[in-house]
Automatic annotation (TrEMBL):
Region (Disordered): 87-127
Matching PANTHER family: NEURONAL PENTRAXIN-1 (PTHR19277:SF24), PENTRAXIN (PTHR19277)
Cofactor(s) needed for function: Ca(2+)
Protein name: Neuronal pentraxin 1
Coiled-coil ranges from the UniProt annotation: 128-174
InterPro entries in alphabetical order: ConA-like_dom_sf (IPR013320), Neuronal_Pentraxin_Related (IPR051360), Pentaxin_CS (IPR030476), PTX_dom (IPR001759)
Keywords, in A-Z order: Calcium, Coiled coil, Disulfide bond, Glycoprotein, Metal-binding, Signal
Domain of life, source organism: Eukaryota
């Protein structure tokens, strides 16, 4: 039928649920839907055009597409952010532990044991043991000062000695009190770091006072008769050699060393150059054996020195075939080859005693710091013979000094509380 709406003719068509014979029985009760369409429009086209659900579906699809594009853009931005953060984290964490991702190369551990901000964390027993050793070392030095003051009849030295003795007595009381408190209240360990920091701060101050007193005696001993003392495992206590090393196609490095640190005595010395922080390093870190690194290539050394006694050690190397030898107390303990062959030691670097360098002249890590005493550190630009090394280890009058670096107070600067004291190796070991 045909109706008119506001003067416009329209057709009315009826849609039924299917009104053919018998179909009402299949669908139950039927209903009719009336839809108005323009007069000249095809009814099938009008039916498709007025399909409401299809329009809704199309709109929904467009919205979903726009949402997907926005999320894709967000994901790309987040990927860039994650990449940047990962790069920063990698730089902060450093490299992985020696040895093990590549043969002959060394990487550092990035685990939770790393502490580049200061004193290495340790348990109560280790702390008390180390503090006890430090106090014993201070007392020994103080006794030496007492002897010096008696021989020189110095009233000023005697006054300073009394003051230092009082400070040491106070520190011993603190350690004793600490032992008692740990035994009584073991769970209360959260204050350990703060208490240890106070005690070690006092110890560092005490080292400075003793060092000042010792400086007054420089004119009374030869410049090479001294030792360096590194009593605590920190990232700020070290000595720096004033001059760099030349280019070397062979070398011998020898020293007297004493330590009872565990695990690992740390880094007696490290030499870094621009672009390579591990140009030449001697290190015993964690439970690993002592190692010599040249251009980040590593050889394990058969040294056993953490028994609290003085030992003389030497390492020789030549760039030809990377041949190396290791001597302890004048005796050949090990050798090998293919250690950074045909790589000369580069010049214009920084030589540091007591710390391992992650950057040129810095980037120290407390977990790799040397703890102990070091003396008669010498470097040659050639391989020493077994006889020459034996003369050094036995303090022979024929023993030579290094032609690249010779042990002298005037050639070293101290930082962070590392201290000097008189040392004559043969007197100590005989």
């Amino acid at each position: 039928m045909r109706v008119a709406v506001e003067g416009i003719p329209w057709k009315l068509f009826l849609l039924s649920g299917v009104l053919l014979g018998g179909s009402s029985q299949d669908f139950g009760q039927t209903q009719f839907i009336c839809t108005s369409v323009p007069k000249d429009m095809d009814l099938c086209a009008a039916t498709m055009q007025n399909s409401g659900p299809a329009e809704d579906l199309k709109t929904t699809v467009l919205q979903l597409r726009e949402t997907v594009l926005q999320q894709k853009e967000t994901i790309m931005n987040q990927k860039e952010t994650i990449k940047e953060l990962t790069s920063k984290l990698t730089r902060c964490e450093g490299m992985a532990e020696p040895g093990d991702s590549k043969p002959g190369s060394r990487r550092k551990d990035t685990g939770s044991s790393k502490n580049t901000m200061g004193d290495v964390s340790r348990g109560p027993a280790d702390t008390l043991s180390q503090l006890g050793q430090t106090l014993q070392s201070l007392k020994q030095r103080l006794e030496n000062l007492e002897q010096f003051s008696r021989n020189n009849n110095s009233a000023q030295a005697s006054s300073l000695k009394d003051l230092l003795q009082t400070k040491i007595d106070d520190l011993e009381k603190q350690v004793l009190s600490r032992v008692n408190s740990l035994e009584e209240v073991k769970p209360a360990l959260k204050n350990e770091t703060e208490q240890r920091g106070k005690v070690e701060s006092t110890l560092t101050s005490l080292h400075h006072r003793i060092s000042d007193l010792e400086k007054g005696q420089k004119d009374n001993r030869p410049l090479d008769k001294f030792q360096l003392t590194f009593p605590l495992r920190t990232n700020y206590m070290y000595a720096k050699v004033k001059k760099s090393l030349p280019e070397m196609y062979a070398f011998a490095v020898c020293m007297w060393i004493k330590s009872s640190a565990s695990p690992g005595v740390g880094t007696p010395f490290s030499y870094a150059v621009p672009g390579q922080s591990n140009e030449l390093v001697l290190i015993e870190w964690g439970n690993n054996p002592m190692e010599i690194l040249i251009n980040d290539k590593v050889a394990k050394l058969p040294f056993v020195i953490n028994d609290g006694k003085w030992h003389h050690i030497c390492v020789t190397w030549t760039t030809r075939d990377g041949v190396w030898e290791a001597f302890q107390d004048g005796v050949l303990r090990g050798n090998g080859e293919n250690l950074a062959p045909y790589h000369p030691i580069k010049p214009q670097g920084v030589l540091v005693l007591g710390q391992e360098q992650d950057t040129l002249g810095g980037g120290f890590d407390a977990t790799q710091a040397f703890v102990g005493e070091l003396a008669n550190f010498n470097i040659w630009d050639r391989k020493l013979s077994a006889g020459e090394i034996y003369n050094l280890a036995t303090c022979s009058s024929r023993a030579q000094v290094g032609n690249v670096f010779s042990w002298s107070e005037s050639s070293i600067d101290l930082y962070g509380g590392a201290s000097k004291w008189t040392f004559e190796p043969c007197r100590q070991i005989n």
